[in-house]
Amino acid sequence: MRMEIRGRRIAHCVSIGVAAVLLGGAAGAQPDLSGQTVEWFIPFSETGGSDTWARFNAPYLQRHLPGNPQILIVNEPGGGSTRGANQFAQRRQTDGLAILGTSGSTQFPYLLGDLRVRYDYDDWAPVMIAPTGGAVYVSPELGIRDWRDVAALRDRTLIFASQGPTSLDLVPMLAFKLLGFDVRYVFGYTGRGDGLVAMQRDEVNIDYQTTPSYLRNVAPMVAAGEAVPVMSWGVLDAEGRVQRDPTFPDLPTVEEVHQLIHGAPPQGPLYDAYHVFSTAGFAAQKMVVVPKDTPEEIQQMWRETWQRVFDDPEYQAERQQVLGAYEQVTGEAARKLYEAGTNIAPEVLAHVLQMLADDYSVRLQDPDR
């Protein structure tokens, strides 16, 4: 028993010592991470999009964090990212030496009340948000020349290769329903790469790809006349208004397509649902968070570090090629995107859950949180 108590006291002293080092030993002092290792938890496997994103950013964080600590990427896949996020939430490490990178696949189960979720975004604070985008394209066999003919899609039978209605594919499903498209979904695909292959084989006739995949794989198809782009998911400005995606400035947003087809902007619970999930899945897709009770000095250190990363000329030169033409944000801009991408009104959630049950026979229990 005495040994156990002594062990606990030693652990407590170590914890206090780490905090003192990080805070410079005095209230309000600049944190110093010299000789430390920062663990960046990524709840996805290696080589995936989130892992690639983290490994691109890690050297710049090491360069600009005070004390130039080592950055260790810790991959904890499983449960569609819920496993790793649950583990991070249970750790509640507030010394600044652990951060979590989330993605739309982490936000969606939380918003939908998935029973696997044991984390709460209200318990975390964002220190960085990385938006991304995506574009919808169709087969030229549908007789569509460009996006100006998009209204004609309402008279076509569309076939879409899907990973499932609770995946990121919920965004196009909500968009297509909002626009009044007749879409038949083929489930069982394991990723958007499979959807691309299905399009190339003429097994389906409508698809979307995230920006990096679109630029790499779909743009050559468009140039060869093998695909017709029709719309993008857009981005949010500083006031939360939907704007055209800077990577696809000539493509209309879903909101613009709705105006073109229906003569009015979209509104109502279906559009509210689309807006929440498109924000969580794209406009605020990747987030870096720390526990909310992390000392403010450490949170501010992370925000200032990310700003120095964004301002780094080398980062600016390489970012667009790797991440697309999307401004990475911190501070107040990140807070606004965080709130928009992690909150859903009860009536909007109820509408989505009912739609999932009625249209796809998917029933999810909404835990009281």
Automatic annotation (TrEMBL):
<protein>
    <submittedName>
        <fullName>Tricarboxylate transporter</fullName>
    </submittedName>
</protein>
<dbReference type="InterPro" id="IPR042100">
    <property type="entry name" value="Bug_dom1"/>
</dbReference>
<dbReference type="InterPro" id="IPR005064">
    <property type="entry name" value="BUG"/>
</dbReference>
<keyword id="KW-0732">Signal</keyword>
<comment type="similarity">
    <text>Belongs to the UPF0065 (bug) family.</text>
</comment>
<feature type="signal peptide">
    <location>
        <begin position="1"/>
        <end position="29"/>
    </location>
</feature>
